[in-house]
Amino acid sequence: MWCHQFLSSPSIITLVSHKRSQKSHQIAHSSHSPTTKSKLPMDSAQKTEEPTFEFLTKKPYAPPSWATHLNPLPSHIFSLGHFPTPIHKWNLPNLPNNTEVYLKRDDLSGLQLSGNKVRKLEFLLAEAVAQGADCIITIGGIQSNHCRATAVAAKYLNLDCFLILRTSKVLVDNDPGLTGNLLVERLVGAHVDLVSKEEYASIGSVALTDMLKEKLLSEGRKPYVIPVGGSNSLGTWGYIEAVREIQQQLQKANSVAFDDIVVGCGSGGTIAGLGIGAWLSDLKANVHAYCVCDDPDYFYDYAQALLDGLQAGVSTQEIVSIQNAKGLGYAINTTEELKFVREIAEATGIVLDPVYSGKAVYGMMRDMAENPGKWEGRKVLFIHTGGLLGLFDKTDQIAPLIKNWRRMEIHETAPRKEGIGKMF
Questions:
Q1: pTM of the entire structure?
Q2: In this structure, which of 44, 82, 307, 416 has its CB flanked by the most CB atoms within 10 Å?
Q3: How far is the C-alpha of 164 from the C-alpha of 187, rounded, in Å?
Q4: 56: Cβ–Cβ under 8 A, 6 or more apart, which residues?
């Protein structure tokens, strides 16, 4: 209210206008002074060209040469992420002999809009805009990174976003709060519909998004539906494109080749893209996935359907190895898993999320300890898929594991003078 009154005060507006008028008069007078020479030609000075920036622009998509036989090919892509994301060596403790692990930092693909979902959304939202959509529907867990990324990306493109979020039946009728991803989603104005885990399990994500789509259509809206995790055949192109990015980075580095690529798996699109990309390109790395929900057989089948949708002509079991790392269940952590996340952060400075990369690295390190011969002497690239905000939902569990604080000891003889320490 105060801000509105201040900005709309007549005296302020008059003063600003007067100053601008004086400044304009001075500039005009100066430009016509016989002692002043213009540094630009007259026609150049009169041109007012629109600046061109790549971020948030839609452009035609040209696939990698080794993927042009896939069908259908995307026609356009939106620039939503900050790519290429860095690759660097990751000094993990207790690795097998001569094993080197590198980290692909897809957690740095943005801030509000970050993680592996951004790569899929670049293709999915290009199609949504091409189809004339005015709003986006998607679905996921209560702390879904994908839903948060979709809500932010939709708002970037001036689209409304409707999220169906899965929660427990004891919380489904309550305000979901503002923890982690929920805070960002609600700040950017996403519409949140809550369903219970039981409703989700018995009705299914496709039927639930279809229900909301029909409702919005009846209201005259033009919704575009994005599936769980952005994982459909079109979204798979996000990590086909990521393989090309990795290839280009390796060409510049000119000193390393990866034997293995490792990633967490929660919806299937990322592993389908990495698998087919590594298989078709000259990267030729073995792709390993650690699933954090369902089971390996489910993801072999789901990723197969995505590849069949691209007429890839290959079996998922030939191009990716999937192991179970879900532990107690999706987004449910043991104390040992959270302690592992803390230890990796303390040892390397890399903060893993508790739902995806945390469980995947935990699974990878356990496999390396149990089967060291399988990994000895290999160069491994781990894809960090983001999800930092999910940690905020785990603070109650993590708090007992973190005790590195104390009251600073200040000796009584330390000189003191009132006002010497300025507090801003």
A1: 0.86
A2: 307
A3: 16
A4: 78, 79, 80, 156, 157
Q: What is the pLDDT of residues 275-314, one digit of tens each?
A: 999 999 999 999 999 999 999 999 999 999 999 999 999 9
- Which residues does residue 286 pair with via DSSP β-bridges, in sequence order? 260
Kindly give the interhelix angle for 296-308 and 269-280, rounded to the nearest 10 degrees.
60
Helix (H, G, I), strand (E, B) or coil at 382: strand
Name the residue among 256, 263, 313, 271 with its Cα closest to residue 67: 313
Provide the H-helix boundaries in 254-295: 269-280
The answer to whether the beta carbons of residues 174 and 146 sit under 8 Å apart is: no
State the Cα–Cα distance between residues 393 and 182, nearest whole angstrom: 10
Single out the residue of 289, 128, 314, 308 nearest to residue 222, CA to CA. Answer: 128
DSSP β-bridge partners for residue 195: 166
pLDDT higher than threshold 70 for residue 9 = no
* DSSP tag of 48: -
Q: Find all residues with CB under 8 Å of 95, minimum gap 6, and list them.
A: 101, 368, 375
Directed axis angle between helix 237-253 and helix 117-130, to 10°?
130
Distance CA 218, CA 406 (A): 59
Over residues 158-181, the mean pLDDT reads 97
Residue 315's CB is within 10 A of a number of other CB atoms, namely 12
Contact of 85 with 47, CB cutoff 8 Å: no
Give the type of residue at 51: P
DSSP-assigned letters across all residues of 163-220: EEEEE-TTTTTS---S-THHHHHHHTT-EEEEEEHHHHHHH-HHHHHHHHHHHHHHTT
Half-sphere exposure in the Cβ direction for 341 (13 Å, CA): 26
Q: Tokens in use for 41?
A: 């030609």
- Kindly list the strands in the beta sheet with 160-167, ordered across the sheet, starting from the edge strand earlier in the chain: 191-196, 160-167, 135-141, 223-225
- In 217-328, DSSP assigns E strands to 223-225, 260-265, 286-291, 320-324
**Active site residues per annotation:** 144
What string of DSSP letters covers 105-143? EGGGS-SSS-STHHHHHHHHHHHHHHTT-SEEEEEEETT
Q: What is the dihedral of CA 245, 55, 69, 286, to 10 degrees?
A: 30
Please classify residue 238 by burial: count the beta carbons closer than 10 Å to its beta carbon, then call 0-12 exposed, 13-18 middle and 19+ buried.
buried
Model confidence at 19, pLDDT cuts 50, 70, 90, reads very low
